């Protein structure tokens, strides 16, 4: 007998609820404040985490913030009044370590959203937000379980966390979806 799709969906939702409830409010608040205090916001991540970071940059752009995805051809250079927000479950992705080192050498702030705040990128970061999830690496143990493969729970939690952070920033800046829609792409 094949398991129903709704059974898997319900289990995924339970996992997401558990993981997101364990995110520390002060860490989220520190990230929000640092973003809003920065002149420009740069985001980066590898693989699916990078896709979640890109969606976060898009929403910040809709809010009127100067948000950029590292590596895009129209992305400017980072300066000391800017922040680099990295998305990495392991906190050990080599390309992201290099970005963090470069940003720090320029004097920019570095933030990491991760499963592993004690990681190499975490050690370089000015602030971290821990998302309690199962690491994608085989044999790695964070104490969190998931029926989902690899880093799915982290990546889904990352998207939800970033969307919740956007809602908090919208509230703080007294914006709503209608206001933001004015910055939506219109050459589609």
Instruction: Give me the CATH superfamily.
Output: Glucose-6-phosphate isomerase like protein, domain 1
Give the H and E element order: HHEHEEHEHEHH
How far apart are the termini?
44 Å
Rough outline: globular
Biggest pleated sheet: 5 strands, parallel
- The averaged pLDDT comes out at 88
Oligomeric state of shown chains: single chain
Helix content: 40-55%
Q: Which fold name is given in CATH as the topology?
A: Rossmann fold
Number of domains: 1
CATH architecture: 3-Layer(aba) Sandwich
Return residue spans where pLDDT drops below 50 for at least 5 consecutive residues. none
Description:
The structure is a single chain. The protein is an alpha/beta fold and 188 residues long. The protein has one domain (28-171): Rossmann fold (3-Layer(aba) Sandwich). Helix content is 48%, strand content 12%. The protein has seven helices and five strands, in the order H-H-E-H-E-E-H-E-H-E-H-H. The protein has helices spanning 5-21, 25-37, 47-62, 94-106, 120-124, 152-172, 177-181, and strands at 41-45, 67-69, 83-87, 109-114, 127-130. Strands 2-1-3-4-5 form a five-stranded parallel β-sheet. Strand 1 (41-45), helix 3 (47-62) and strand 2 (67-69) form a beta-alpha-beta unit. Helix 3 (47-62) runs parallel beside helix 6. The protein is globular and about 50 Å long. The N and C termini lie far apart (44 Å). 37% of the residues are buried. The model has no long low-confidence stretch (mean pLDDT 88). InterPro entries: PHI/rmpB, SIS_dom, SIS_dom_sf. One of its GO terms (molecular function) is carbohydrate derivative binding. Belongs to the SIS family. PHI subfamily. Its EC number is 5.3.1.27. Residues 31-175 form the SIS domain.
